[in-house]
Amino acid sequence: MKLIAGPASIDLARKISTILNLKPIELEHKMFPDGESYFRYCEQLSGEDVIIVQGTHPPQDKHIVQLCLLAMGAHDLNAKSITAVVPYLAYAKQDKMFKEWEVVSIDAILKILKSSYIDRIITVNIHSPWVISRSPVRIENLDATPLLSNYIKELMLKDAIVLSPGKKGDEMASTASKVLGLDYGVIKTKRDISTGNVEVYIEGVDVKGRDVIVLDDMISTGGTMVKSILKLKELGARSITVGCVHAVMVDEADKKIISAGADRIVATDSIPNKYASVSIAGILASHILKA
Ligand code: R5P
Questions:
Q1: How far is the CA of 238 from the centre of ligand 1 (A)?
Q2: Which residue out of 126, 190, 218 has the highest number of ligand 1 atoms within 8 Å of its CB and is therefore the one to mutate?
Q3: Ligand 1 in contact with 165 (CB < 6 A)?
Q4: 59-108 residue pLDDT tens
Q5: What's the predicted TM-score (pTM) here?
Q6: Which residues participate in catalysis according to the annotation?
Q7: How far apart are CA 63 and CA 12, in angstroms?
Q8: Burial category of 72 from C-beta neighbours within 10 Å (exposed 0-12, middle 13-18, buried 19 and up)
């Protein structure tokens, strides 16, 4: 087995390699002056099971192209199999035609990855798990919710409740509540597909005077979290702990979240970020070893 640390995920790949006791292979990587990526494998890959660790967080297009180059290069060097560890899988939000004639981006991206000779993708909390069954390439989707929850458990919050927004909110909050031993609830959301603005609805849960944990699979613009925090404050929450698997954090979303009244942000290291107090390297490493 050969482990390749893609330029998007060098630190995470190093952590995985330490756990697996498998040094990443030497890879020559440079950027041409016009912004194109150059790679050269510094050793033979013939007959090897190759694991490429490369997230597709922003800049997504560049990271996807780099993943394709690395996979196709490994294929051309006669690798036996190619596994892409893509902790954050981009483009999963455009998982259907919301409007007539739109490009269903995630389907296109998965076809591109398939035609780059990737045999399987290992990812974490994919945004649209319902695309897995129609994907042309095998996707194995891990859940980092228990890891985040275990970390939050140590914070010793008082009379706490865990809430999660969106379509997958019930599943995430329920998983977390089992680890935390707490009540849980869902934050209903409604997004305007043209403006991207989101409205949140918190009903049927009592948060007054309680420590509230809001867990989400990802924070992108921070819009969902900011609206949730403002509503929770209005409802009398005592403290708010924000947790996410993927801290995409565009346009200083984290600052907006703190300004809205969050007490802390907890994230994983699926994307390099300053709130990454929870590492997903362990679950990725043990999954890599599974056939
Ligand atoms: C929605 O389904 C997700 O769980 C997140 O709530 C959403 O993607 C977050 O996006 P943003 O930070 O831009 O509101």
A1: 23
A2: 218
A3: yes
A4: 999 999 999 999 999 999 999 999 999 999 999 999 999 999 999 999 99
A5: 0.96
A6: 190
A7: 15
A8: middle
